[in-house]
Structure to design on (990 residues):
């Protein structure tokens, strides 16, 4: 099916219920569908939005086009959770139904104000000449989840940015509200983060761009997100078109972060000693990560596992993408750590210790059928090298291959080239991280049908990626030319 | 909203996706929505259909009208489960899309044949004069859940029954197929169960009515269901309009059963020593129970918790009804026992032993906030009497009241008159069962927001009912005039 502009922007009211029911059934039945991650009920899911704690529950929204695997007319779908693991689908929340968001209720954030959850997001409107107009819109959600939009946009686009001005994050600091907004400078066409200030959410003052780097941040910054992690300000953002000489990356668009010393809101200055932004995830498919500070003092992040302008194999099944699991953030020794939340352990069933053998022949089967939804923890000693295979066939000619060394030149490489249906080969089929030499390596791998999330060395690195393997390929194996010492546990993950 | 005939039979393709999304969100957000029982994604749910084990999973379908709390144009929705507790929504399965089921894909059963699940169900068609025509239709579901309907109806309605001829159950016995079908005799207008035989599912022979009682079985029998429980044939059915002098019942329509000695298929004779049918459930809202023999040798049943021609408070929220939990069937001392399946225990969290006090003042609070989703097991000694309250407010003026005596004149009464929103008062607000005198009483109560299921004395009786209490009414208490000895445990139930 060709996704013409007309089809992508067809009103929700012009799609039939039968079409939607068929799409929902199709998404549910897919062999690649996820079992313990947030997935679209139908069609396409992208950015997490409005991640927050409200009314005694975690609230999460996501960008949705419910009618196919295309970036069509977007809305916000809503989920709630008590534990950040078990999510309840609350359905369509923010609809593209006013003149300010007629062509998409785009990404944004949420902030608890009084007994309401205040949503701030970007409305996309196309005029009769199909020219884009962008509006920063406010809406209030009450405890019964009823949403009322403010009548007028909150922030007008200033002249110094182009229509690529979106994804507002609403923050409160010292009794003032601030909005940071992804932007493209009108003159230089470079990526910027705009900062606005307001006392009352009505009158807003443009504080200009946030000063956080001397480098040019590509041609557009999407999804800027400021979060305090262990009291340290962390700026997460997506600098589209970033020069790879500044920070190298392989994905079509990067999702990066910078650790700060201080955020001086009123001076629009993010003071940092970090020279270059760092990749938030070292895998293939993370984008648009949104983090927030929860009332329990923790900082939680969740990522869209999917990328703009990339086709995924499930497009043919009319659905696409998923959310990462929620990650708890910490800063240790100048690095952002991302870790599973404790409630993930509640999904573990049937823990199986994995056998250790000193000398491996060609390879050792850890589990012939590891299932399609599991967690695997491996602790590998220093000065070893080998390969871990999962989602593999019997002779390991197909599968995901993780090569690693914990010797002098320590590294870890994910290779998805033999996993199954090929996709996005243009941006490479391997991803490599360097490891500290001669150190133990711990891997916490979460597999969910077509998604893998690896937390390496307690979350110092994460590598998140999709793959589309034949469903009978469920072998888990390890190989090495020599001695290999490790301990491990495998758990089935069931929600 | 008034449910005109036109609206109820509007084609699925004429409802918009936006309407459906709104209905799905409305159903999800309801305060009365269930958390660990099968519930409609939107609109109305009624009879369980096609309960079976296929492709390594339990399969269940239900009658659905997805567009509101009305008996409109029906389809089959599909669910699968590994453990009979955690169900995965597979979406719309059998659509009303041929001339034989244009006005409803009505109830039926499923039977594994080769590597397909064969579905047999009733197609409802209304002609230009709005006259009802009934067809018994076959369809095959493959392992990818694709459904192909047979081109022609399998069984023509014989002249000796009226158009009230529906709900076929397909059974295989000694290499022959049999279909038992609910019917109304054309001449006497009384309820009957028709029996048909076929070697090849193509040519069917009318064996007449099943002989199972000398009494008149009301004016129509719906949902006849033959299942073998501990090798004993059990006939479950809904004799609409049954004379209460035969077997007393209080619900608008009863769901009853008879234990047999033998089912002589070829003689259309259900040999039984049981004189009168018995109520399958002693609560308020069970109907259309469907049971089947699983490959593990067990017999499992599931019930619609809802009744035809009764309005429920959630009708105002555009959704209605739910499924009971799955019940494992056994026959002991001439009585059908219904018990929770073992996997229900996997939902238990935070078991709390309940305190015993010898002498109660006015009442004893067992838990001030018992939550809205829990299991409560109580074991009460012989020669006691008292009341159990749940979904109660602080002074117990509102709530469900269970009065009981384990003395000479032992009984248990459920009173839902003070529970919350009143409904179906016409058929009484209490239900009482007699208990054996001077015996211990065990109660296993499952509460899920607006549904209660009580298994009494290990499932010798079940009492299932809906109630619609204010959500802050979560007190659990016990009262007695004198001494009361019991032990108990409370578990939060979480999926």
């Amino acid at each position: 099916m060709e996704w013409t502009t007309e089809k992508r922007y067809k009103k929700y009211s012009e799609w039939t219920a039968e079409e939607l029911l068929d799409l929902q059934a199709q998404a549910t039945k897919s062999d690649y569908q996820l079992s313990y991650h947030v997935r679209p009920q139908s069609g396409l899911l992208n950015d997490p939005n409005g991640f927050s704690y409200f009314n005694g529950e975690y609230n999460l929204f996501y960008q949705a086009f419910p009618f196919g695997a295309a970036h069509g007319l977007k809305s916000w779908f809503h989920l709630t959770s008590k534990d950040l693991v078990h999510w309840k689908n609350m359905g369509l929340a923010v609809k593209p139904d006013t003149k300010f968001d007629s062509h998409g209720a785009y990404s944004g954030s949420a902030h608890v104000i009084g007994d309401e959850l205040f949503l701030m997001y970007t409305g996309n409107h196309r005029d009769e000449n199909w020219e884009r107009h962008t509006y920063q819109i406010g809406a209030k959600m009450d405890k019964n989840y009823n949403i009322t939009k403010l009548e007028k946009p909150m922030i007008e686009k200033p002249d110094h940015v182009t229509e690529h001005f979106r994804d507002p994050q609403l923050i409160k600091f010292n009794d003032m509200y601030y909005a940071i907004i992804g932007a493209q400078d009108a003159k230089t066409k470079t990526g910027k983060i705009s900062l606005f200030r307001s006392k009352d959410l009505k009158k807003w003052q443009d504080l200009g761009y946030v000063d956080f780097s001397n480098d040019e941040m590509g041609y557009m910054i999407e999804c800027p997100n400021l979060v305090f992690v262990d009291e340290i300000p962390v700026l997460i953002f997506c600098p589209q078109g970033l020069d790879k000489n500044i920070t190298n990356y392989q994905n079509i668009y990067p999702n990066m972060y910078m650790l700060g010393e201080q955020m001086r809101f009123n001076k629009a200055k993010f003071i940092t000693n970090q020279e270059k932004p760092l990749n938030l995830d070292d895998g293939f498919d993370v984008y648009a990560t949104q983090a927030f500070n929860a009332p329990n003092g923790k900082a939680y992040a969740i990522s869209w596992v999917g990328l703009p302008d990339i086709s995924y194999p499930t497009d043919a099944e009319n659905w696409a993408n998923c959310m990462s699991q929620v990650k708890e953030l910490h800063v240790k020794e100048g690095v952002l750590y991302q870790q599973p939340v404790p409630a993930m352990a509640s999904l573990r069933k049937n823990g199986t210790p994995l056998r250790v053998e000193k000398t491996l022949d060609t390879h050792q089967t850890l589990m012939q059928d590891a299932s399609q939804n599991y967690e695997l923890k491996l602790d590998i000693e220093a000065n070893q090298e080998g390969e871990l295979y999962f989602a593999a066939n019997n002779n390991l000619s197909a599968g995901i291959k993780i090569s690693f060394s914990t010797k002098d030149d320590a590294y870890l490489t994910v290779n998805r080239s033999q996993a199954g249906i090929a996709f996005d080969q243009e941006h490479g089929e391997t991803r490599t991280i360097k490891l500290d030499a001669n150190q133990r390596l711990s891997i916490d791998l979460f597999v969910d049908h077509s998604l893998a999330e690896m937390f390496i060395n307690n979350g110092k690195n994460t590598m998140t990626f999709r793959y589309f393997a034949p469903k009978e390929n469920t072998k888990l194996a390890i190989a090495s030319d020599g001695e290999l010492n490790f301990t491990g546990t495998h758990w089935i993950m069931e929600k």
Summary: Residues 17-29 of chain A form the longest helix (13 residues). The radius of gyration of chain A is 22 Å. The interface with chain B takes residues 11-22, 24-26, 28-29, 66-67, 78, 86, 88-93, 95, 144-145, 494-495 of chain A (CB under 8 Å). The first strand of chain A starts at residue 43 and ends at 54.
